[in-house]
Design brief:
Belongs to the mTERF family. This is Transcription termination factor mterf8, chloroplastic. InterPro entries: MTERF, MTERF_sf. This protein has about 375 residues and is mainly α. It has a domain at about 310-365. The protein contains 22 helices and no strands. The chain is globular and about 75 Å long.
Length: about 375
């Protein structure tokens, strides 16, 4: 009898120890377990998982289930690849307290009107979830709300630039606004900056002032010009060395500084194209078609259109029509490439499809 009781007691003691061990193992997420979790649940390679787990400090490995985070993100509409990207950059999120930490932050975004894919995109493009709700996030939102006038406006701006909320906006932005005001920018101009390219208000004022001076003095764009703000927007993303490299490409094709200024005054965004894009575009228009710098400088839109998807296919159609005398009068490439797609098909392709089906086939082939 005593033997039977003793065995029952042993079994019960084993069961208690097993339950304690199981609950402790589930609650305490050690580094080796983290590697296995990343590999098995999120599709990390072993190397990626080891690298990511190394970013997590021992103090971060607290008693929270990372599966709860996956459930939360899954309900928000994140797919596995998006969760993997987020966890790769901020693995400590796996050990955040869901109810006390993450849900209140997500609720703030939802109150701004962000939901579905907008919400997912915002979270994946920022370190929002790792920021303090009351130390960073709410002060930033309050500042934007006070300046822009409504939460709808705030939502529009933060969707445009999610990383805004990672900065100390009440400290960083006012000096730039003051600078722009002193330079003669209106309140409407500054709000336009917020909506179009808010990131450049995060630069230090000295850098922004140099950009403004460059637009005005180097490229001779008057402040009252409707292109002035666009020039600031284009130039603020270029450091001096990168800008000079791009200008040197134009010069290597025979452009004078006057030609370059004329182009920038008409379309500053020509400077935002990659160096490879600038080089290949100039090579096509100047070396292959024989256009002069002055012609392109006053028609800068040609330099921004896609060569592969628009310019070259339409140029082939134009050549075909001219060679087969299917059009009367003068017809130039600028006119042809500036047509909306529907108008181009209606005027230069479809009328000749029955008579010469190769016209349509040629166009579709060159666009693919």
């Amino acid at each position: 009898m005593f033997g039977i009781v003793s065995n029952c007691a042993k079994e019960r003691l084993f069961s208690i120890r097993f339950q304690l061990f199981y609950s402790t193992a589930a609650a305490t997420f050690h580094a080796n377990t983290l590697v296995e979790f990343l590999v098995n649940s999120l599709g990390f390679s072993n190397k990626e998982a080891i690298s990511t787990s190394s970013k997590v400090t021992r103090s971060t490995l607290r008693n929270y289930e990372p599966h709860l985070l996956l459930d939360l993100f899954d309900k928000m509409g994140m797919n596995k690849a998006q969760i993997k990207t987020l966890v790769s950059s901020s693995p400590e999120l796996l050990f955040s307290h869901i109810d006390k930490n993450l849900k209140p932050k997500i609720k703030v975004l939802q109150e701004l009107g962000l939901s579905g894919s907008d919400l997912v995109t915002f979270i994946n493009k920022s370190d929002f979830l790792t920021r303090g709700l009351h130390t960073t996030i709410k002060p930033n939102l309050d500042y934007l709300r006070e300046y822009l006038g409504s939460y709808d406006a705030v939502a529009r701006v933060v969707k445009k630039e999610p990383r805004l909320l990672s900065n100390n906006l009440p400290k960083v932005i006012p000096p730039n606004i003051l600078l722009l005001q002193n330079l003669g920018f209106s309140q409407m101009d500054i709000e336009t900056v917020f909506y179009r390219r808010p990131r450049y208000l995060l630069n230090n004022p000295e850098w922004l002032e140099r950009v403004v001076n460059r637009a005005e003095k180097n490229f001779r764009i008057p402040r009252e010009s409707r292109m002035f703000l666009h020039a600031i927007e284009a130039l603020v993303s270029l450091d001096e060395s990168k800008l000079e490299r791009k200008l040197d490409i134009f010069r290597s094709f025979g452009w004078s500084d006057s030609d370059i200024c004329a182009m920038v005054r008409k379309l500053p965004y020509c400077l935002t194209s990659s160096e490879a894009k600038i080089r290949s575009t100039l090579k096509f228009f100047m070396n292959e078609l024989g256009y002069e710098p002055s012609y392109l400088a006053f028609r800068p839109t040609l330099l921004k259109l896609s060569l592969e998807k628009r310019v070259m296919p339409r140029n082939e159609i134009l050549k075909f029509l001219k060679e087969n005398q299917l059009v009367k009068g003068k017809l130039n490439l600028y006119t042809v490439v500036m047509c909306p797609e529907s108008k181009f098909l209606e005027k230069y392709v479809l009328p000749f499809r029955e008579k010469m089906p190769e016209v349509y086939d040629l166009y579709m082939k060159t666009r693919s």
